[in-house]
């Protein structure tokens, strides 16, 4: 340790002129105060700005110079023998020189940053969103990394060894692996794992460069070529292990499945459940078939029919990258639409490239047809060939509440809400004739999302009432009264289950407007919701309560609508809800409904025909 401090002191004494240069740089910006232009506050702000720019430039330039001359110059000029003629180890020489460089850098940093970091807080906040402490730490940390990298490059270049070509190849491989590691994490919004990968790489880089300097001088001593070989072997061994480990870690993270989810939640439409939660350090989303347990990763949006899902995800294109980094939120313009059948195992049917603003879509139950509304044009595709079968202009869809349904492979049904008029229009487009047919509407809507489509049935909610139509005969309308704080579920036998959102929570069973049952919940329950119909006369319901720490909790029950009895309470369990939650109707296509145990991440399913509960097959 004595040798380390002695070498450091010698190096600092030889380079003390750097402090004079730092003082000279620091005194440049205050000259602005003497310029008779603008107010004193304006000139003070200019001093901070100029001083900050000059100080950063000086600090980072000094870091590069110190790194390049740390041992590289003396090694190439064969002047390191001065140290090795004494009883000093190579590691002591390295750490002595490194300590001196760090001291020179830190003191010079303090001198040149004294004015921009020491001026008034208000001027600093005007110039930068970073705090002064964060700015100082960031600038100094970058300077240290630059100094160490400069040392490595200086050693390699000054040796004039053909090994430099292998270093270049290793650098390209490292960059490629880093891109292959980081890009999928970024696209999956796995920010936590991406931060972990970055931290591991930076730590490996510091260990490789700091440890490599000691290793090269201990093994190579005054031989420039051997110094290069030993430094390269040490650096690429450490960096290689770190990058390969990070690559494996990223693949492990992205291999998460629904069974890895904790704090799980989700929404269900048909048998398809969109699951979300925390898994392996980030928040992935999946589309799972509640009947089979088969799943795929969710994308930007999706549409489904039966066990077929079409997932819309941004393409990895340059145009999308430009839009992502151009500032502000911009939707991607290039897409991949992946059509998959979620049978016992996922079966990919087709992948279609799309472009433009995609507003809505639909897929046929066999996956042979896809309809997409993009850039004011409705286009119907054959998934097997990828060819467009027909298209028609639909104009801009005013709301994301628009839905598309394929009635037959050749007839596409559009549900077009008008937010301004609070109405819904239903139209059919025949691909063979290229003609539109009005089906129903305008129908009054409270907002653009308050309607449900189940096969040929359409349930809508206006102001004060619900309307149920069979779109094969849309003029025959059933109307049900609905209060502002009440949701309504229309049962298979024609009865209505009215569920109250507020306190005190209750569920009322009505037939033809006459109350048959009234089920009150306890004082701790703040609201209830009907989620699904089980068998002929039972309902799957959720009760929402608030715990002492003001967190919401849910308990799921089965309600016998004939007797009014609640049974099978499932604490801390959420039934995947369908949107919108304030109206509902039994869907014959639904065979299973997902039950999500939020705390454990366990996913069960209930058979809607029998009420039998089993663990998901995922």
Topology:
Elements: H1 2-14, H2 17-26, H3 40-68, H4 72-76, H5 81-84, H6 90-112, H7 114-118, H8 121-127, H9 132-159, H10 163-187, H11 191-220, H12 224-254, E1 262-269, E2 272-278, E3 285-289, E4 295-297, E5 301-305, E6 308-314, H13 318-324, E7 334-342, E8 346-355, E9 358-363, E10 369-374, E11 377-382, E12 388-393, E13 403-408, E14 411-418, E15 423-430, E16 435-444, E17 451-454, E18 457-461, E19 465-470, E20 473-481, E21 486-490, E22 496-500, E23 506-511, E24 514-520, E25 525-534, E26 538-546, E27 552-560, E28 566-571, E29 573-575, E30 583-585, E31 592-597, E32 603-607, E33 613-615
Parallel strand pairs: 21-30
Antiparallel strand pairs: 1-2, 2-3, 3-4, 5-6, 6-7, 7-8, 9-10, 10-11, 11-12, 13-14, 14-15, 15-16, 17-18, 18-19, 19-20, 21-22, 22-23, 23-24, 25-26, 26-27, 27-28, 29-31, 31-32, 32-33
Helix pairs in contact: 1-6, 2-6, 3-6, 3-8, 3-9, 6-11, 9-11, 9-12, 10-11, 10-12, 11-12
| Number of helical segments with 4 or more residues | 13
The secondary structure category is alpha+beta
Specify Rg, calculated over alpha carbons.
Answer: 34 Å
User: Strand-residue fraction?
Assistant: 25-35%
Strand order of the largest sheet: 24-23-22-21-30
Oligomer: single chain
Largest sheet: 5 strands, mixed
The percent of residues in helical segments reads: 25-40%
């Amino acid at each position: 340790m004595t040798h380390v401090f002695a070498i450091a002191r010698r190096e600092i004494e030889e380079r003390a002129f750097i402090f004079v240069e730092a003082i000279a740089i620091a005194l440049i910006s205050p000259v602005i105060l003497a310029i008779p232009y603008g107010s004193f506050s304006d000139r003070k702000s200019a001093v901070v700005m100029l001083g900050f720019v000059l100080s950063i430039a000086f600090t980072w330039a000094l870091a590069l110079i110190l790194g390049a001359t740390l041992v590289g110059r003396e090694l190439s000029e064969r002047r390191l023998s001065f140290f090795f003629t004494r009883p000093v180890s190579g590691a002591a020489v390295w750490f002595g020189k490194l300590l001196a460089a760090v001291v020179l850098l830190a003191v010079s940093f303090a001198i040149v940053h004294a004015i921009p970091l020491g001026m008034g807080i208000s001027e600093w906040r005007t110039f930068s969103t970073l705090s002064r402490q964060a700015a100082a730490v960031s600038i100094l940390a970058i300077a240290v990394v630059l100094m160490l990298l400069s040392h490595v490059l200086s050693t390699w270049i000054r040796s004039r060894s053909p090994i430099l070509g292998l270093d270049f190849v290793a650098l390209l491989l490292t960059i490629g692996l880093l891109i292959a590691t980081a890009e999928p994490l970024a696209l999956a919004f796995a920010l936590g794992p991406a931060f972990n990968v970055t931290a591991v790489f930076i730590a490996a880089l510091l260990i490789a460069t700091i440890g490599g300097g000691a290793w090269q001088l201990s093994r190579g001593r005054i031989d420039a070529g051997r110094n290069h070989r030993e430094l390269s072997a040490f650096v690429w061994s450490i960096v290689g292990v770190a990058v390969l480990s990070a690559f494996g870690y990223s693949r492990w993270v992205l291999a998460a499945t629904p069974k890895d989810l904790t704090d799980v939640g989700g929404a269900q439409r048909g048998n398809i459940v969109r699951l979300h939660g925390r898994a392996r350090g980030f928040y992935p989303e999946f589309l799972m078939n509640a009947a089979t347990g088969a799943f795929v990763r969710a994308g930007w949006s999706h549409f489904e029919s039966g066990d077929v899902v079409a997932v819309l995800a941004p393409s990895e294109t340059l145009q999308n990258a430009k839009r992502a980094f151009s500032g502000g939120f911009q939707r991607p313009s290039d897409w991949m639409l992946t059509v998959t059948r979620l049978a016992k195992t996922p079966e990919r049917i087709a992948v279609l490239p799309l472009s433009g603003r995609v507003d809505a879509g639909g897929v046929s139950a066999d996956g042979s047809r896809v309809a997409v509304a993009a850039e004011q044009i409705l286009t119907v595709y054959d998934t097997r060939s990828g060819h467009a079968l027909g298209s028609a202009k639909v104009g801009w869809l005013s709301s994301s509440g628009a839905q598309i349904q394929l009635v037959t492979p050749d007839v596409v049904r559009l549900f077009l809400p008008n937010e301004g008029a609070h109405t819904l229009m239903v139209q059919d487009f025949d691909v063979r004739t290229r003609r539109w047919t009005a089906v129903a509407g305008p129908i009054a809507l409270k907002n653009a999302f308050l309607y449900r489509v189940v096969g040929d049935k359409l349930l809508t909610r206006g102001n004060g009432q619900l309307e149920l139509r069979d779109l094969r005969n849309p003029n025959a309308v059933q109307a049900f009264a609905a209060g502002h704080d009440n949701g309504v579920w229309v049962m298979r036998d024609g009865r209505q289950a009215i569920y109250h959102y507020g306190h005190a929570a209750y569920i009322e069973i009505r037939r033809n407007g006459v109350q048959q049952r009234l089920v009150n919940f306890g004082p701790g329950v703040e609201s209830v919701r009907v989620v699904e119909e089980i068998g002929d006369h039972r309902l799957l319901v959720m009760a929402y309560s608030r715990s002492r720490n003001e967190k919401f909790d849910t308990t799921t029950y089965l309600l016998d609508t004939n007797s009014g009895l609640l049974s099978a309470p499932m604490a801390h369990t959420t039934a995947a809800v369908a949107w919108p939650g304030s109206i509902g109707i039994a869907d014959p296509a639904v065979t299973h409904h997902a039950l999500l145990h939020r705390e454990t991440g366990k996913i069960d399913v209930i058979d809607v025909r029998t009420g039998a509960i089993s663990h998901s097959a995922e």
